[in-house]
Amino acid sequence: MTLYDADQELRATSNRTFLVVVDDSDEMTKALRYACRRAQHTGGRVALLSVIEPAEFQHWMAVGDLMKEEARDEAEARVNELAAYVHEQTGCMPLLFIREGRLKDELLTLLDEEEQISILVLAAGTNTDGPGPLITALTKSDTVGQLRLPLTIVPAALSEADIDALS
Questions:
Q1: Please, what is the Cα angle at 11 between 49 and 98, to 5 degrees?
Q2: CA distance linking residue 64 with residue 155, whole number of Å
Q3: Whole-model pTM above 0.70?
Q4: Which of 22, 41, 82, 92 qualifies as a cystine partner to 50, CB 3.0-4.6 A?
Q5: CA nearest 34: which of 11, 17, 13, 18?
Q6: What's the confidence (pLDDT) of residue 96?
Q7: How does pLDDT run across 38-81, given as a tens digit for each residue?
Q8: How far is Cα 149 from Cα 155, in angstroms, rounded to an integer?
Q9: Distance between terminal CA atoms of the chain?
Q10: What whole-number distance in Å separates Cα of residue 78 and Cα of residue 131?
């Protein structure tokens, strides 16, 4: 059995799926690198979730529909770009999810629906306002008890070398 065969066999029997929420923040790339490294070392895989939030501009239906279509095209392009990175890092294509709605609601719904997702990986922001709106929302006492899986928070101050050493 070659190393490649052993890696594929481990992936086939592993049930670890690391979910990363896609956004345009710098810290998201830290969460993605961490998830890729953990998936690579445990024989797991990565899943990507992009949520298209409802547009605030709803005055004209045609304009709203166009904005929604453009947002979906952008989300698909971003997820595909990140999927290529995940494949390069792990040798495995990620699971891809694109949803429309409020981020927290869609994330919690996905976690309820997709039992194969076993770890949620987010990265904390570096600004003084706190770790970020999603982490803040998920760690409130009324929400954190609803999570059925571990939440891993990667400090945004970590370098790639730090992440590689930890994962």
A1: 15
A2: 36
A3: yes
A4: 22
A5: 18
A6: 97
A7: 999 999 999 999 999 887 655 666 666 777 788 889 999 999 99
A8: 19
A9: 26
A10: 23
CB 91 within 8 A of CB 66: no
| CA gap 68, 17 in Å, rounded | 29
Dist CA 70 CA 84 (whole Å) = 21
Helices (H), the chain: 3-13, 26-42, 61-90, 103-113, 133-138, 141-144, 160-166
Average pLDDT along the chain, 167 residues, taken 10 residues at a time: 49 76 93 97 96 74 73 93 97 96 95 96 88 90 84 94 94
* Residue in this structure with the two tokens 């592993």, named with its chain if needed: 14
Cβ 14 vs Cβ 44: under 8 Å: yes
For 101, the 3-state DSSP assignment is: coil
Residue 135 in contact with residue 2, Cβ under 8 Å? no
| Radius of gyration of the chain measured on its C-alpha atoms | 17
How open is the CA angle 29-11-17, to the nearest 5 degrees?
45
DSSP string, 57-68: --SSHHHHHHHH
Contact 3, 9 (CB under 8 A): no
